[in-house]
Amino acid sequence: MHRFFxxxxxxxxxxxxxxxxxxxxxxxxxxxxxxxQVVSDDGITALAEVVAIDGECVSVHCLETIxxxxxxxxxxxxxxxxxxxxxxxxIFQKAVELGATALVPVAMExxxxxxxxxxxxxxxxxxxxxxxxxxxxxxxxxxxxxxxxQTMAELLASNSCGTKLIAYECEDRMSLKEALQAAExxxxxxxxLLIIGPEGGISPKELExxxxxxxxxxxxxxxxxxxxxxxxxxxxxxxxxxxxxx
Length: 246
Ligand code: SAH
Hints:
By secondary structure, the protein is α/β, with parallel strands linked by helices. Helices cover about 35% and strands about 25% of the residues. It has a 6-stranded parallel beta sheet, with helices on both faces. A 5-stranded mixed beta sheet has the order 1-3-4-5-2. The mean pLDDT is about 95. S-adenosyl-L-homocysteine (SAH) binds next to helix 7.
């Protein structure tokens, strides 16, 4: 069944507008009475019936809500140190496919790229579009939000995840697996903040800030992974460990 994201909170009567509305009327040639799925901004998926089609606007009536089908149990926020060129596009696209719930670009001390005001806003808009396309393609039940570009201090001040991990290439005692097992034993993991450095790595000051905020430095093994590899490997391992990856 076709699914459409509606950027509004769930309501019994909803409207699908713009490109999606044109797709429904011109390409799918749906008629009043046909059924589809809508996913609202607050993450509710519902079975809905088309009641009216008017070119740019399709009105639907929601019949019943549907339980989350494609979301992982552990909600991961990926905080990625700003990396060069197209790498952030790749990282965020793949993170959404894997199942990240939220994405945060972080301007780190060793980030080579610097983005100021309007440039940063444009980039965030671009990443949000990439996240949306990836969410649709991978049949997610929600569109992960891309937060504004922020510093490590801002990230730590605003993030409320109960489990915080920072992948640190110099860590040689605590493995990702051990940290996950400890967190599961200490009450379970619900929301997890995963911090990954940029190409230049995480600065000593950022590491200390993260530790002071309760983040646990973890190793991803004996080889140094590139910035665009580390987050995806860590996410895959977390979802595997928490029973979400096949
Ligand atoms: N410039 C650094 C490498 C940075 S790799 C150096 O040459 O040493 C980019 C980021 O990926 C790191 O900041 C870290 O968050 C993560 N990362 C890469 N390999 C890792 C590993 N083996 N263990 C933990 N984190 C790793």
